[in-house]
Write a structure and sequence with these properties.
The protein has 1415 residues and is an alpha+beta fold. The chain has 33 helices and 40 strands. The relative contact order is 0.05.
């Protein structure tokens, strides 16, 4: 180095050192939303990007700022603790004597020698090593420069986007970097402000050309992406753990290339599997001379074929490799287990042999594998020909010791490439001035960072070991690793070049590598699918995957999670560090209530991938994703698949699987050949029938062959019936018997649901209510045996060529099979489906039967939700009928959170069981009345607009349940009743009567103002509970059937006449009743007496007549009760309830009291006159309700305890139902009070005055109040004693709240004796006699009871003895009958023997006669 250069460096360093250092804790601009997330890359946006400042000073009086720099709106990047940032500088500030440029050397670069002070940081080592790995992959000898990857091409500044662009230096400091993030290429904006430490060292990688900015800008953008990963802030951890947490699962190759990273921990227990994977993924070392190659085993030949195929695929696209395999190692954490320290020592020793350090982890590239010796053994000289004749055999060595045959271990080596091999990690220098000199002296040396694999047999020339211990390790390396490292033989490289070393790591050494990093190029996969979601908090998603293939398939699943963005940082919470982004994939079946365990689980803070291996067949998996702010799911495969929402996947599962269709076609083709063989004149060939048996006979099953054959024959019969669309004729049935060769098919092939089969099963009219005799049974048995034998012979003859049975069956089968071939695939699927249906459900016949779980048939019923806030809505109520046993899953899709579905069996009236709040998959049996599906929703405060509610019914196969009528019922009329809750001793909230004029079905819903109240809602008919439900806060009876009350019109008119007088009294309650009312009451009583007297006469006269049939009286009562005293009211609510209870039972009020009541109750409660007027008007209309209706009209005070009752019926039947409040008890009390007042007018006023005066004694007087005078007994002229003017005016609320002391009821209780009496001998004797009488009475009663028991026991014994005697008699009779039968059989046998002897004798005589004639 010249003196001029030295002086120049000194001057520059002095300038930089005088600059005041800025503190790195500058405010960081934070964002609280994801609206400003990095946008997707678009060349048009880059072309229109503004690269200058475009800023104007805020104060026009101030002079414009000359040096305006771009400031990153997202703030400065955050570096790990190993890089202590002290201040930030722009390139124009620390490159004083140089002209900054983005890229200077476009052919090579060196990031190792100039960044020795950064190699102690794990983050910087990973950035440098991964940039080198990508450079090597795109710049090996097989790839031309046209396909080469250049790291500076990720940076854009003052240039047009395109391939091969060159970014320029921007004095404004604004740069765009193109990186892959969250599933797509993103535009990331950075500035050129660079961090420095206290020793003035640049804390970002720099190349050997100090004026180049691309390494710093690219590393800054990568660190910016890495800052989206939350960092743990546990200060109690050791320093080693903090350093090893700088990277975690983050990698930079994914963001530089878009390749999908798969992390696989190296398990050295299963190292054979790992070795096989490496042999199939990376190239294998092969000697150049093919003649000297050693012989390979079969496994090695198989792997070599796979590698050749892999290379052929790789050569097709030389620009981007399909698979890249890397490895990494991490320092082990501190642990109490001593085995961990042993493992650390072994790993560290293994890495030191290759000049690597365990504490300084980074990524290494796996370049090749080697299974052959590095140096081929020398061939022995050829033997002369004369030695080959009569070659001497070697004599075995006889020894007493056991001979041990040496076993040679296979040679298995892995080649790795790393830029940090033989690189010592040095500490930064102590003089900051000398470090700053490097920034001012440009070096125009070119560096080639090639990571080419180097032959292991070359000599180590021209290199001096940096480490003093390296020489010793090199000497002993041959015996341990067998020629571990060699230099590269490249004469074009300069002496200052950084040479990448490739070492061969032997597999038997201690495991230094901890995991494999496999990068998959997604562009090489023909089938891909992606899903993304970015939200401000709690991004959740559920997706479904469907794979249907005849071969095993592999699915590459990549998952990226966003947990930190700007001001939205979840790492401040301790629990947030324990919630990484999560993806779980599990097998899913719509018809199963059991949750399957997940087969894939990915937890990551950045991006991670795994490979899912699936066997052949159709598989459906559910993917559940969760992340704090957002996620991205990317699936790749060479097998076709579908990934998306539930609707899209379910539509695919309605078809048959590929395995099912293929198996069905194979069986159907074999069956077609058998049908065609009937036309052959040479007869059916045995091999055709054998091929059919092989087609439908499973290889591995629990069923026997004869069982499978019977199932197949029956399935063929049903399939042909479906093809014909009718029942078979006798000729067609015989043809099917000939086809299946199963004569017993007709006994099993009954279709009970068809009308023809039911007609055949119906007995003749002459056999109805008649039992066959023994002779008839024997005759029928003989006929059946004869017919069976005849049928078997005909079936056997049909398989012979030329017989009339064969010709007839051939003609019929050809006619039937023509209809089958019209839709071959449909009937093939029907045949296999019938085999699965007719066999046992738990028995697996074929492997494709497992795909039936994914086969679904579904239908949807949608309803538009009304835009009502905070209201209960009955959405759907319909009856479904099942024609066959069906496994069904009803599922609700609703935009409202509270949505419930109820399923009721109409035959039993019971609701089917639920799984929490959902109806699980159940097996529905056919019934007479069907199943009612009822759905309800409760809308929130802000209901969604134009929302749709959908019910989906999912089953395995058709037919689906049918609706009772089309279209489904979804319009209802709801009668709503609201009122206040008044506590009572019976805990009854309310009661409403219900009457209908026609039979109808309704839904009853009850809701309270407090959601913590436990309620029982019941429907009573004649004091009998017909339906009941229990809930908390609200309760619903989904289905309630109501029948009309068949009453005569005359009875209704009589009831109206009885109600009319009460209405009149209610209207004129404040005036003294006229005499007519009193007389009418008396007349009513006399009429009742006359009726009772006449009724007795009529009863005596009509005793001989039959009792009249009385029509059933259907009177329904809706009652709500509070359970467990769960509705507690506060003081204000309780006082308000007492006021309402007092008003409901009062009939006669003075005017002053009415005014006080109306003033006390306030505007929320109407006056009594208004309430009663409303009741009268409603009674006239016949639309029943009590004061609750008036409160509805005026509005309830929602702060008081209240309830709401809703009754929903079909809108067309709204006029046929009448619901009234049950006020029978209150009306009875009022009627008693009216009668009491009518007997003596003026009683009510007197009683109220006395009550008021008595209660006022306990009312504390206030200042200015007049003392209460005594009540005068004088009456007014009108016969009523009004309230005196000086009576106290006590408010009604205070009147009810007065605490009255308890009364002394002692004077009114009659005692036994006024004075105590001494117990004498006479009294004792009388008491003793009473006790004796009681004892004697008890003994008499006991004796009677014992006697009765003995009598019953004797009766039982006699009955048992009679039964035994009867049994013995029957047994004796049976023995006698058996003896008779035995005698008859003996006689018959004797007759048969005699007949046989006679025939034999006759035949013998005839033969003798013939013999004599012949002679």
């Amino acid at each position: 180095m010249s003196k001029a250069q030295f002086k120049k460096k000194e001057s520059t360093s002095s300038k930089i050192s005088d600059v005041q250092a800025e503190v790195c804790s500058a405010p960081i601009a934070s964002t609280d939303s994801l609206d400003d997330v990095w946008p997707e890359w678009n060349d048009g946006d880059v072309y229109r990007e503004k690269w200058d400042s475009g800023k104007v000073p805020e104060d026009p009086k101030k002079p414009p700022v000359l040096n305006l720099f771009f400031e990153d709106p997202e703030g400065r990047i955050s570096l790990p603790a190993s890089l202590n940032v002290q201040y930030w500088r722009r390139p124009t500030e620390f490159l004083v004597s140089m002209v900054p440029t983005v890229i200077e050397n476009t052919h090579s670069f060196d990031l190792v020698s100039s960044n020795q002070h950064l190699l102690h940081s794990e983050l910087m080592r990973w950035i440098i090593s991964e940039i080198y790995i990508v450079w090597k992959l795109f710049h090996h000898r097989e790839v031309s420069d046209h396909y080469g990857w250049k790291p500076w091409e990720h940076i854009y500044s003052l240039c047009k986007p395109g391939k091969g662009h060159v970014p320029l230096f921007n004095s404004y400091g604004k740069y765009l970097v193109r990186l892959f993030w969250m599933g797509c290429w993103r535009k990331i904006t950075v500035d050129d402000s660079m961090p420095f430490d206290k020793d003035h060292n640049l804390l970002l990688p720099a190349s050997s050309c100090r004026a180049e900015l691309w390494p710093m800008l690219l590393a800054k953008a990568l660190v910016k992406v890495m800052n989206t990963r939350p960092l743990s802030e546990n200060v109690n951890r050791n320093k080693m753990a903090q350093l090893s947490d700088e990277i975690g699962e983050f990698n930079f190759i994914h963001h530089l290339t878009g390749w999908i990273p798969e992390f696989s921990p190296i398990n050295y227990v299963c190292r054979r599997k790992t070795w096989d994977f490496l042999q199939g993924s990376i190239p294998e070392f092969i000697h150049k001379s093919p003649k000297m190659q050693p012989k390979k085993s079969r496994a090695q030949l198989r792997w070599s074929l796979a590698l050749s195929e892999h290379r052929s695929h790789r050569d097709t696209d030389k620009g981007s490799p399909k698979l890249v395999v890397c490895a990494s190692f991490y320092p082990n954490q501190l642990h109490d287990d001593p085995y961990v320290y042993t493992k650390m020592a072994d790993s560290s020793e293994a890495l030191r042999r290759y000049n690597l350090c365990l504490r300084h982890s980074h990524v290494v590239l796996l370049t090749q594998t080697r299974t052959c010796p590095l140096v081929l053994p020398s061939q022995p000289p050829p033997e002369p020909q004369w030695k080959l004749f009569r070659k001497k055999s070697e004599k075995p060595v006889i020894s007493a010791d056991p001979q041990i045959i040496p076993v040679s271990e296979p040679e298995e080596f892995i080649g790795i490439a790393s830029p940090f091999i033989d690189q010592r990690v040095k500490s930064p220098p102590s003089r900051p001035a000398q470090r700053m000199d490097k920034w001012n002296v440009p070096k125009k040396l070119s560096y080639m960072p090639h990571l080419d694999s180097i032959p292991e047999g070359a000599e180590n020339e021209g290199r001096e070991p940096i480490d003093p211990d390296a020489a010793e390790s090199d000497v002993n390396r041959e015996s341990v690793v067998e020629e571990v490292e060699v230099p590269a033989e490249d004469n074009k490289k300069k002496d200052d070049d950084v040479v990448s070393i490739v070492v061969m790591v032997k597999k038997k050494l201690p495991p230094p590598l901890s995991r494999l990093l496999v990068f998959h190029n997604s562009e090489t996969y023909p089938h891909q699918a992606q899903k993304s979601l970015l939200k401000c908090s709690y991004a959740r998603g559920t997706y479904y995957l469907c794979v249907d293939s005849l071969q095993p398939s592999q699915i590459l699943i990549s998952f990226s999670g966003l947990l930190r963005w700007g001001g939205i940082d979840t790492t401040n919470d301790i629990s947030a560090t324990r919630c990484p982004a999560l993806l779980q994939a599990a097998p899913f079946h719509w018809k199963s209530r059991r949750c399957q365990p997940p087969v894939v689980t990915i937890e990551t803070n950045c991006s991670k991938a795994t490979v899912l291996n699936l066997p052949e067949g159709r598989h459906v998996l559910s993917f559940h994703t969760y992340a704090e702010l957002g996620y991205h799911v990317h699936l790749c495969s060479k097998t076709p698949f579908s990934f998306g929402e539930e609707d899209a996947i379910m539509s695919l599962c309605t078809k048959e699987s590929l395995r099912f269709s293929e198996k069905a076609k194979v069986i159907m083709r074999a069956l077609s050949k058998v049908v065609a063989s009937f036309h052959d004149r040479h007869g059916q060939k045995p091999h055709i029938r054998h091929s059919l048996e092989e087609a439908y006979s499973p290889k591995q099953t629990q069923l026997e062959n004869w069982q499978v054959q019977k199932v197949f024959s029956l399935a063929v019969y049903h399939m042909l019936c479906d093809a014909l669309g009718r029942e078979m004729t006798p000729q067609e049935r015989f043809a099917v018997l000939a086809l299946t060769a199963d004569p017993s098919l007709l006994a099993r092939a009954r279709r009970p649901h068809s009308p023809a089969s039911r007609q055949e099963l119906k007995p003749p009219e002459t056999w109805i209510d008649r039992q066959p005799t023994e002779e008839e049974v024997k005759a029928a048995t003989v006929l059946q045996a004869a017919f069976k034998g005849f049928l078997v012979r005909m079936v056997c003859n049909s398989s012979k060529a030329g017989t009339k049975e064969s010709i007839r069956a051939s003609a019929v089968l050809s006619d039937m099979w023509s209809k089958v071939e019209c839709d071959f695939d449909k009937h093939a699927a029907s045949l296999l489906g019938y085999m699965f249906e007719l066999s046992d459900r738990e028995t697996i016949i074929y492997p494709c039967q497992m795909d039936e779980w994914t086969k679904v048939v579904f239908t949807d019923y949608s309803v538009n939700l009304p835009d009502k806030a905070n209201s209960w809505i009955l959405v759907f109520r319909e009856v479904f009928f099942f024609t066959k046993e069906t496994l069904l899953l009803p599922k609700v899709y609703s935009p409202v959170s509270y949505s419930r579905l109820h399923v009721i069996n109409n035959d039993t009236g019971e609701e089917l069981s639920k799984l929490i709040t959902r109806v699980p998959p159940l097996l529905y049996q056919p019934n007479e009345l069907g199943y009612t599906f009822v759905a309800e929703v409760v809308t929130p405060e802000s209901p969604p607009a134009n929302a749709k509610w959908t019910l989906r019914l999912t089953a395995t196969r058709e037919p689906l349940p049918k609706l009772s009528h089309v279209p489904p019922l979804n319009t209802f009329a709801v009668q709503e009743f609201q009122d206040y809750y008044i506590p009572n001793n019976n805990n009854i909230i309310c009661g409403y009567t219900l009457k209908v004029t026609v039979p109808l079905v309704g839904t009853v819903h009850f809701q309270t103002s407090s959601r913590y109240v436990k309620i029982r809602l019941s429907i009573l008919e004649q004091e009998t509970v017909v339906a009941s439900a229990i809930g908390q806060g609200h309760v619903v009876i989904p289905v309630a059937s109501f029948l009309p009350n068949e009453e005569k019109e005359e009875e209704e008119e009589e009831e109206e006449e009885l109600i009319a007088p009460s209405g009149a009294v209610e209207e004129n309650q404040h005036t003294p009743p006229v005499q007519e009312d009193e007389i009418k009451v008396l007349d009513d009583s006399t009429d009742e007496d006359e009726e009772s007297s006449t009724s007795g006469k009529s009863d005596s006269e009509d005793d001989h007549l039959p009792p009249p049939t009385k029509a059933p009286d259907h009177r329904y009562l809706l009652r709500a009760e509070v359970l467990h005293h769960s509705w507690d009211l506060d003081e204000s609510q309780l006082a308000f309830a007492h006021l309402l209870s007092f008003k409901e039972t009062q009939v006669f009020f003075p005017e002053e009291l009415m005014e006080s009541v109306s003033a006390t109750s306030g505007s929320d409660e109407p006056s009594t006159d208004t309430a009663k007027g409303n009741r009268k008007g409603e009674d006239d209309k016949g639309n029943g309700s009590s004061s609750s209706v008036s409160r509805e009209e005026t509005g309830l005070d929602l702060t008081k305890a209240n309830y709401t009752l809703r009754v929903a019926v079909d809108k067309s039947q709204a006029e046929n139902i009448v619901v009234k409040k049950d006020v029978e008890r209150i009306e009875q009390i009022k009627a008693i009070k009216r009668a009491w007042e009518a007997a003596e007018p003026g009683r009510a006023a007197k009683a109220w005055q006395l009550r008021l005066n008595w209660i006022s004694q306990f009312y504390p007087p206030k200042d200015g109040d007049i003392p209460v005078p005594e009540v005068s007994s004088t009456e007014s002229d009108d016969g009523c004693s009004p309230i005196p003017p000086d009576a106290p005016s006590i408010p009604i609320e205070q009147l009810l709240s007065i605490v009255v002391p308890p009364l002394d009821y002692t004077p009114f209780i009659r005692t036994k004796n006024d004075t105590p009496v001494l117990l004498n001998a006479e009294m004792e004797e009388s008491q003793r006699k009473k006790r004796l009488e009681k004892i004697q009475a008890y003994q008499m009663e006991r004796d009677l009871l014992v006697e009765e028991r003995e009598r019953k026991a004797t009766t039982r014994r006699e009955r048992m003895q009679g039964i035994l005697t009867q049994y013995e008699d029957q047994q004796t009779a049976m023995v006698q009958e058996q003896q008779k039968f035995h005698d008859m059989r003996t006689q018959q046998n004797q007759k048969s023997n005699d007949t046989r002897k006679w025939l034999n004798n006759r035949i013998k005589r005839r033969e003798d006669k013939l013999a004599v004639d012949e002679t």
